[in-house]
Design goal:
Length: 290
């Protein structure tokens, strides 16, 4: 397992698996062990996935200054990884909360990003609004599921600001296309893989300046993909379309029948879409640093 040193001296780990040009992958959670990304539905057949374990997660060390868990401060870790890999430019993927870090890194270092893939992204970094009806309307697409009534009642409570602790577990079926034993096991593993202290600080005061970030992304010239899940209550399609519109020419794909983890819900469709995006404009492939 390779490691490198962040600018503040923290030892960080990453995992490189697969064949083909590198794709740096930033996990969500927030602050979850990157192991949950797996092989992204088999994308390792087309790309070398470089999964970064964010500080304090997975095999990466806990920093001396825990305030460095703040999302904007971790952009320096991504830049240090680029240097470690010897890439002049990198192709970058951010999932869920990891898309906030991907967006901040891209805004800060636009010349260092060849292609940017935002998978069911969180929108905190760019300051978009997701209404209660955005989430509830997306949830109602699942009204024929046997678990729907109880999960929907809990989602209503969450969106109305009157959630109890149990409601957060009750809405878990909405994250997955199929609420089966595999999804339940995946959900249980999430709870063990996340650094809760780090997650609480990830979006703390000062982490995001949406106006500045959006201004920078509006001038970002390289290819961008926003991939949403049709059933994803965390990133409803309307808002994902708005996110894609922040870039000069981003492509939006809404994966039918997918939730928050589209590579699990339909691996073939996910890999086909990602590979087509990553293989376009081959002249912008990552190049070794001089």
């Amino acid at each position: 397992m390779p490691t490198f040193t962040a600018p503040d001296g923290t030892t960080l780990a990453y995992h490189a698996t697969g064949d083909g040009p590198p794709l740096v992958c930033l996990p969500g959670g927030p602050m979850q062990d990157s192991v949950y990304l797996g092989d992204l539905g088999g994308l390792t057949a087309r790309r070398t996935l470089v999964r970064l374990d964010l500080r304090g997660t997975g095999r990466s060390a806990v920093p001396t200054d825990t305030a460095s868990y703040r999302c904007d401060r971790q952009a320096a870790d991504v830049e240090a990884l680029r240097e470690e890999l010897g890439l002049e430019r990198l192709d970058l993927l951010g999932h869920s909360a990891g898309a906030n870090l991907a967006a901040l890194y891209t805004a800060r270092h636009p010349d260092r990003v060849g292609r940017l893939a935002l998978i069911t992204p969180s929108v905190f970094a760019v300051g978009l609004d997701i209404s209660a009806e955005d989430r509830l309307g997306t949830a109602r697409l699942r009204r024929d599921e046997p678990w729907f009534a109880a999960a929907y009642a809990s989602l209503e409570a969450i969106t109305a600001g009157r959630a109890r602790a149990a409601d957060w577990d009750a809405v878990a079926p909405f994250w997955f296309a199929r609420w089966d034993d595999g999804a339940r096991a995946f959900r249980a593993a999430e709870q063990r893989q996340r650094n809760d202290e780090a997650a609480a600080l990830y979006a703390s005061d000062g982490a995001f300046d949406p106006h500045v970030t959006r201004s920078s992304l509006a001038a970002f010239p390289s290819p961008v993909l926003v991939l949403a899940g049709e059933y994803d209550v965390a990133g409803p399609a309307r808002v994902m379309k708005e996110y894609a519109g922040l870039f000069p020419g981003a492509e939006l794909i809404v994966q039918n029948g997918a939730g928050h983890f589209p590579w699990r819900d339909d691996p073939k469709r996910f890999v086909t879409a990602l590979a087509a995006f990553l293989d376009q404009a081959s002249g912008s492939s990552p190049q070794p640093a001089p």
